Amino acid sequence: MELTIASFNIRYDTQAFNIVPLGSEGDIFPRVNTSNVEWGERPWYQRRAPLADQVLWENPSVIGFQEVLWNQIGDLAQLLGEGWGWTGVCRNDGKRQGEAVPIFWRKEVATLKNVEHFWLSDTPEKPGSVGWDAGQTRMATLAEFTTVKNELTFYVFNTHYDERGLQARTESSKLILDHVDKLVDRISPSGQAPLIFLVGDLNSPDTEDGYRSLTRWRYVDDGSSPQQGGHTFFLDSRYELHTRVSNFNTARLLGARYGDWLATFTGFGEHDHRNVIDVVLVADTGAVAAVSPAGTRDRQDNAQKVMQTGQQQWAVTRYGVIPNRFEGGFLVSDHRMVVATFKQTVVGLPEL
After folding, report:
1. Cβ(282)–Cβ(235) under 8 Å?
2. What beta strand segments (E) does 48-124 contain?
3. DSSP code of residue 42
4. Which among 216, 220, 219 has a CA at the least distance from the CA of 229?
5. 252: helix, coil or strand?
6. CA 17, CA 312: separation in Å to the nearest integer?
7. Fewer beta carbons within 10 Å, N or C terminal of the chain?
8. Across 120-240, where does the E strand assignment appear?
9. Hey, what's the torsion of the CAs at 307, 308, 314, 319, to 10 degrees?
10. Residue 140 in contact with residue 101, Cβ under 8 Å?
11. What is 304-342 written as a DSSP string?
12. Under CATH, to which class is 2-346 assigned?
């Protein structure tokens, strides 16, 4: 069984006051010979169709979007079609005002069982609340799913951290980890290792505590790891990819990460600062086989650790960062979509 989980910051509609209905866009693509056509932000009504095409082409099981206004949710729902479901509310009022972090899923793969929304602040139950040194209100969506095929339960968090507040990013991670602990405490007595994903735009590179506290400093080599206890932490699919140097499923594995993985944020300008701030993480509950030991920043080499558990676990079998511009086109967003595939297999043994 496989689940493909994705994250995509689509850039909010800066002209939402002047909505262009689907089907009335006109000629949205620039002439290929136009000077410097690829740079600069295009309006949402031009970006939405090729952006949705990217999602349909990658065909993830579940995808979390960020910076989504209410009119953009409607556009995505219509463009992706009836085979997709979605859930989400907007952050300003818990209804339709402001940006949302909705979760979309393919109905043939999963069924939504429950959803929770909370705000990244000291009052997480209060819509519109602003936390710590954040510049504006931020929130998270938590969805519980069961797979259609075998009724396996899994969870997906989707969030978008504040870009201004360094403390807010760190405290937001602590808040999410608290929610993860509650899930694990509730599920663990059943003897199951819960499958919990976190997707989103963290606005926090791996040099910051916002990211490092989520992953328990696992991918840090500078000896700065503080003592942390009492939490279930996350694995980063970027570093946990099983490649062809592993000894299971070798015929289907990638040799390395796919695509433009050196940057998930690009901006719309040719010389904009670029960084990796968008993630697909999975909780280290025992459900997923890790390949990189703590304190190892990167395992995309021949020294990759091979898991020999001999038991059924999930493994990261694909990780990619999808280009946000194609030949003759323009940037569909100032971020790139991050996609990771998790396959349930007996790690350390040949393909079942």
Report:
1. yes
2. 62-66, 84-87, 103-106, 110-119
3. P
4. 216
5. helix
6. 51
7. C
8. 139-147, 153-160, 195-201, 234-236
9. 30
10. yes
11. PPPP---SEEEEEEEEEEE-S--TT---S-SB-EEEEEE
12. alpha beta
Task: Please write the tens of the pLDDT for every residue from 135-194.
Answer: 999 999 999 999 999 999 999 999 999 999 999 999 999 999 999 999 999 997 777 899
The residue whose two tokens read 């339960």 is 153
Domain boundaries, the chain: 2-346
Quote the tokens at residue 94: 């818990």
Return the percentage of the chain with pLDDT > 90, whole number: 74
Q: Which residues of the chain have pLDDT under 70?
A: 26-38, 223-230, 246-251, 294-311, 346-352
- Residue 16's nearest CA partner among 99, 127, 104, 77 is 99
Q: 82: which 2 tokens? A: 């009836």
User: For residues 242 and 290, is the Cβ–Cβ distance under 8 A?
Assistant: no
